[in-house]
Specification:
This protein has 434 residues and is of the alpha+beta class. It has 14 helices and 11 strands. Strands 1, 2, 3, 4, 5, 6, 7, 8, 9, 10 and 11 form an 11-stranded mixed sheet that branches.
Length: 434
């Protein structure tokens, strides 16, 4: 009897040890699965809110692991290990695809082309291009150029110089909106006219700006030089490329060129996932001749650059990237300008965008100093700034004077006078429309 009890005890101990070994094996085989779950949750929480799909994938694998295991102790161990490995592989593959799409975004065929085309705009398109930049934008730029916009003080970022060019840059953070940047570049032995064309020439721009990979003129107004353009710029490898729809126009006042570009809505170009569109964008140049430190004569050209844009990147990270890459981009301008000057001397015809830069609008300086914005718009709508339309007033006084002569000389009755003055009033209205 005692012998039988001892055998039962040994048998129960063996079963307990076998069950314990099984549990340890199952726990060890589940480690890759849980590591994959934790990695997926962490990466998904850091990158995108789609981490729920990863969690669902892990839960689905766990559900399959416990409810679809075949019978048999040895087969069950193998099935646990196989299911955990397959689930971990699926989750790691999902994480890798997301990481690859984030770090190395695929570019479209349009982005790799440097096709610069021009499009002759019809009447409606010309009006649209003409009105994207107006006198309000010019006055705002004029205030910022003279530091009269009431913004925060500027913080100096850097001062650099190379032979033929000196450079200074500032920045400030407004209460709302992206960081604003201001720079002053002085080119030796350069005229404002050639520098203006240099910044405006999209066909030549890829020669010195390696970030621009696509430009196209969508609509234009040859009378005013206003234009709507489509740009795609290349960003660092950890960001997708950026798309810009910009309206631009050049004004001239007091020997200074005010080159205005800003982001505008344009429904004819549909929004896509890639490249990412930049809606908040303002970038303008104020170009004028200044005295050269070497010759003490106005042989140098000063460029005040004012820029801000919402690139869709965390603000501090964007500021760090701009600071690190600013000088590498700017120092390419000086050799690019010299190459452009040689290019212009050797070519007979200028590009379309450079010809648009020559169709600028001249504005009297007293209008920029004036606060009468309504008068600006009225003069611009009447066909030219700085030119008053006295045509209607001349007709008015001629018609009224003729009516007085008729009323006093031809008819002595009150009814005749009323009829003549009524006719004169109608004719004066017609004269104003002329």
């Amino acid at each position: 009897m005692a012998m039988k009890d001892r055998e039962l005890t040994l048998f129960s101990m063996e079963n307990s040890s076998s069950l314990l070994d099984t549990m340890l094996d199952v726990t060890a085989n589940m480690v890759p699965f849980w590591v994959a779950v934790l990695v997926g949750l962490f990466v998904g929480w850091i990158w995108k809110p789609r981490w729920v799909s990863l969690l669902f994938l892990g839960l689905r694998g766990r559900h399959r692991l416990f409810w679809t295991s075949p019978p048999g102790l040895g087969v069950r161990r193998f099935w646990f290990a196989l299911t955990a490995s397959v689930t971990a592989f699926q989750m790691l593959k999902e994480c890798w695809l997301k990481f690859k799409a984030w770090k190395w975004p695929q570019t479209q065929t349009m982005q790799h082309s440097r096709d610069v085309t021009t499009e002759v705009a019809d009447g409606s398109a010309t009006n649209l291009a003409k009105n994207v930049v107006d006198m309000d934008d010019l006055r705002d730029l004029y205030k910022r150029f003279h530091n009269r916009d009431g913004g925060k003080p500027w913080e100096l970022m850097m001062e650099r110089s190379i032979p033929g060019m000196s450079y200074q840059a500032w920045r400030r953070d407004p209460q709302e909106g992206p960081t604003e940047y201001r720079s002053r570049t002085v080119f030796e032995d350069a005229t404002p006219e050639i520098v203006k064309d240099f910044y405006w020439d999209d066909e030549f721009r890829p020669e010195w700006d390696d970030m621009i990979i696509y430009t196209k003129s969508l609509e234009s107004c040859t009378d005013t030089g206003a234009e709507i353009a489509h740009w795609v710029r290349k960003f660092p490898f950890f960001c997708s490329n950026r798309e810009y729809l910009i309206g631009r126009r050049i004004y001239e006042s007091g020997g200074t060129f005010f080159c205005i570009t800003k982001g505008v809505p344009y429904n004819q170009v549909p929004r896509q996932k890639k490249p990412r569109r930049v809606d908040v964008y303002s970038s303008s140049w104020c170009i004028r001749a200044v005295e050269s430190p070497q010759t003490a004569q106005k042989t140098a050209c000063e460029v005040i650059f004012l820029h801000s844009e919402d690139m869709g990147i965390q603000k501090d990270l964007a500021k760090l990237g701009v600071r690190q890459g600013m000088w590498n981009c700017v120092k390419k301008m000086e050799p690019g300008l010299r190459k452009y000057m040689a290019h212009r001397k050797g070519c007979i015809t200028v590009s379309f965008s450079a010809s648009m830069a020559n169709s600028f609008t001249s504005v009297p300086l007293q209008l920029l100093e004036s606060s009468d914005v309504i008068a600006w718009k009225h003069e611009e709508d009447n066909g030219g700034l700085g030119k008053s339309n006295h045509h209607g007033k001349g007709w008015k006084w001629i018609v009224v004077g003729g009516a007085v002569v008729l009323a006093c000389g031809l008819d002595k009755g009150i009814v005749g006078k009323v009829v003549v003055f009524g006719l004169a009033r109608r004719l004066s209205k017609f004269g104003r429309r002329l």
